[in-house]
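sanity check both lines:
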Amino acid sequence: MGFKPIPLFLLPLLIFTILSRADQALGSDQNRNVSHRNRAALDAAGGVGKVALKGRKQTSGCNLFQGRWIFDASYPFYDSSMCPFIDSEFNCFGRPDKQFLKYSWQPDSCSIPRFDGQAFLNKWRGKRVMFVGDSLSLNMWESLACMIHSSVPDSKTTFIKRTPLSSLTFQEYGVALYLYRTPYLVDISKEDVGRVLNLGTIEGGAYVWKDMDILVFNSWHWWLHKGVQSQGWDFIRNGSSLIRDMDRLDAFNKGLTTWAQWVDQNPRKTCNGQMQPLTGSTYPGGSLPAASIVSRVLSSMKTPVYLLDITTLSQLRKDAHPSTYGGDGGTDCSHWCLPGLPDTWNQLLYAALSM
């Protein structure tokens, strides 16, 4: 099996991607007689052309994720009423203020290309993109679907929504966007004692992930859930030990390390009433404690990792949550309105794939 570009997202706010050893759109156009996947492997080893995505955060010498939110009258990318893929929980149609839609992310050291859905489809024609994780993966998956749909509104699509695997295919281009729901990435299995979160295995969806051209992973949100109903498991299996619970950061570390090994082996305050982003480029609350774990785990990996670090820019958008306007009747300060912030995540993903 050849190497694939594997974007990884770690959420709720800590998000990063692996974009390495990429084929078609990421490699050099030189040596066209070399297959895309072989050329990608050569690129990763320093052989042919250059790898388009280098380093942990930066693309072409620009840190896409250090910057500020600026008012932009050209936003949003789409009208939620015109996108058929948005769940009610993300549709903030009844929200009376609209200013939160009018901000774009501006890196300090460069300008990023505006998202072009048709260009995305042409560049990734015949490819498969999968978002793997929890409901924030759903948030981003629906965002990308809407962003592309707004560019090609008459394009025929096939939309299948199931658990754990959903898909949206733009038929004319052969581009398929998949969603695989698995909040911990590692397995939850049914055993005699009940539901067991196994920190050392990834088997449940891995057979599906391997067939993708781009993988966008996400985990963190559920690691904080407490209580057997909320967390979705009864016991944790940590090596040979079966335990009721453990330090969640330690569990996250072990689970993410299992994910890293899989990749190497396989190529609150309420948000009600908030209407503007925080100013500046620094989040007052500081970095999340999981950040150091992510850095440590990624630095231990053999596979080169590109860090799509949207944590801080997302933390600054206290104004962009569904709040009380989501369709589930509660106050949602975890997810994001669509159109809204996840569109910027995909804008930056697009920039990372293009620059």
